Amino acid sequence: MIFANLEQLPPDPILGVTAAFRADPSPDKTDLGVGVYRDDRGETPVPAAVRDAERAMLAEQRTKTYVGPAGNPEFNQRIVELALGPLAAELRERTATIQTVGGCGALRLGAELIRASRPEAVVHVSDPTWANHEPLLGTSGLSLARYPYYDPATRGVAFEAMRDHFARLPVGSVVLLHACCHNPTGADLAPDEWRSLGDVIESRGLVPFVDLAYQGFGDDVEADVFGLRHLAARVPQFLLALSCSKNFGLYRERTGALAIVAGSPAVAGAIATHQARTARRMYSMPPDHGAAVAARLLGNPALRASWLGELGGMVARMKALRSLLAGRLAARRPEVDFSWLTRHRGMFSLTGLAATAIAELRERHHVYLPPDGRINLAGVSDDNVDRVADSLVAVMG
Ligand code: LMR
Questions:
Q1: pLDDT, tens digit, 9 for 90 and up, residues 237-264
Q2: What's the pLDDT at 311?
Q3: Does the pLDDT at position 225 exceed 90?
Q4: pLDDT grade, residue 269 (50/70/90)?
Q5: Residue 370 CA: which ligand 1 atom is closest?
Q6: Which pLDDT score is estimated for 231?
Q7: How would residue 397 be classed by pLDDT, with cut points 50, 70 and 90?
């Protein structure tokens, strides 16, 4: 019997937390798991500008016929402009962009293209990294390795170890970098560290593969891409995985893009043909809806301003929640330093809790975290912050 040999798999480390949370009948349960933004009512809003763009787009849409293998060209151009700013125009001739099935699709497609071009390439990812990075990239058949990134003692970036490691990597190694809001640690590189890393990447001829899943979630859409733009101005070639899930609230619409900046326009032209063929052989074409909405929003100054305003409100809320939780924890354990919570950026920080503590949080306190001990600050609210602080302190030891 076909499939009879397949065994039941364990739950996904992140999506499995959502399933377990939903199955918990407790009225006092708290989901600090999957990385979705939540407002003070615990809801994940669709930004007003996204809804307006969506309404206008649907009112005008007369056909659902295929768009094309690379997806929506206006979206591809505008989303790369949002990421790269004025550099996008400078690099346009050397850039091949394809709309993808979310940021995950961009990561996987990028890995497939690296594998097709250089099967022996090794992709180096941060230690730790997002739980799905290694499965997504590694399933392409590429070899993976880890570089030092996070120092649990300081709860910051182990920058010297990272830079020294990069300086020893073989020429041509691919390095996967989180542009901002590092997932899962929340610890980002400072501008000077990006500059210093850029020197090493350039001198070693490393190939950056930048994952930009949280533009606008750290400080703002410009500050969050400082490192990316710095690298883009310096290195001759890089890959960029873009996601509209969080910043546009388009999660389920699976909206993203893969931009590859190549050494020459001719190589970029060839890459574009490979992007289209590889996608065609896996899933043919990307879904249109989210990209059509994002393209319309980005092309309309009023909608764009409204969206940036709403995004600014989300960031302010996440920063406020960081301070709130840090304060409540410090009130309970004054001898412990919780200031790292306010130093981190984006939705995540690593609690450093052991597996037994994470299990106890779930079973005794109905607080849900992924197995790596990551906490999603957006799951905290005025209503649950004391319960969350009490629970964390109870399992901290
Ligand atoms: C997360 O890290 O929780 C999000 O990126 C959602 C996901 O797909 O894992």
A1: 999 999 999 999 999 999 999 999 999 9
A2: 97
A3: yes
A4: very high
A5: 3
A6: 98
A7: confident
Gap between the Cα atoms of 96 and 267, Å rounded = 9
Q: Which atom of ligand 1 is nearest to the CA of 184?
A: 2
- Select which of 130, 194, 307, 340 is catalytic: 130
Residues flanking ligand 1, CB < 6 Å: 14, 34-35, 130, 132, 183
Of 132, 244, 253, 349, the one to substitute when testing ligand 1's pocket (max ligand atoms within 8 A of C-beta) is: 132
Question: Could you tell which of 12, 14, 178 is best to mutate to test the pocket of ligand 1, judged by most ligand atoms within 8 Å of the CB?
Answer: 14
Residue from 211, 224, 288, 372 carrying the catalytic annotation: 211
Looking at the chain, the whole-number percentage of residues with pLDDT higher than 70 is 100
| Cβ atoms of residues 47 and 217 within 8 Å | no
